[in-house]
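Homework help board

Subject: predicted structure for assignment chain

Our instructor gave us this sequence and asked us to write out the predicted structure in C-alpha cell form, then describe one feature. I got the C-alpha cells but I'm not sure how to describe them. Can anyone check?
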Amino acid sequence: MNRSLCIFLIPVSLLLSCLAQHIHATQYIVTNTVPNTPGGQLFDTEIGVNFTLSIMPTINEFIYKVFEESSPDDRRDVPVLNVYISEFPGYAYKNGDNINISASAMYNIYQPRSISKWMFTSVMFHEMAHVFQWHGNFGAPGGLTEGTADYVKVKSGYYNQASYTKPGAGQKWDEGYGVTERFLEYCDSLLEGFTVKLNKKMRYKYDEVYWVELLGKPVEKLWRDYKAKYGNQPQENTIDIYHGLKY
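My C-alpha cell output:
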C-alpha cells in the first residue's frame, strides 16, 4: 500500500469512529410534570432541570466505565432517555428508557433540603444503571438486576455508608438492593471483575450456569459460603436515608 493511501485512510477511520459515537449518543430529556406540587416545587428549587441534564452524561459515562463498555457495540442503544418528575407511590422506577421519580417521595425524604442534589444524584446512579445494564432480556432475577444497579451506585460513592447494608446480611442471594450488592462484591473478591463479566453474559439471556462458568460453583453454594464467612448473620433491620422506600 502506498504512503498517500495510508495517510488518507487514517483520517477516515477516525471519522468513522467519531460518527459511530455520535450515532449511539443518548439524548437526555427532563420533564417536571407536577411543578405546582410541593415535591415538584422542591425539584425546581433545590435540584432543577439544568442540574439533572448536567449529571446525566457523567453518570452515563461512569456506568460504561464500571461495565467496561468502551465501544458502542458493547452498550445498550438508548437514543433518548427521559426523566419524569411525577406523582406515584414509591420512590423511583424505570420503564423502558424512561426514569420516573416521585415528587412526593422527594419532598418527604430529602432532609435536610441542602442535600437534595446529593440524594437525587444517588437515585439517578441506580436508575440509570437499570437503563444501561444487561438483564438477559428480562430473564435475570429481579433481585440481581436491583443488586447490580446498587453495585453501580456504591461504586460511585453516592450512598449512605453508615446505614447501607452490611456484608453478610440477608436471607437469599437475589434479595436485591444492598443484600445482593454486597454478595456481588464478595464474588468480585473471588474473581476480579466478576460482576462486570456476569453483566456481559446477560446481554441476551440469563442462566445460572454462568456462576459455575465464572466461579466454579452454583450460586446457592456461593451464597452459603458467603454467609458462612460473615457468621451467618440474620436479616438486618437497617434504616437508610430512603426510610424503607424501594426503587
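Reply (TA_rk): Your C-alpha cells look well-formed. For the description, you could write something like this. Residues 135-237 form one domain. That's the kind of observation they're looking for.
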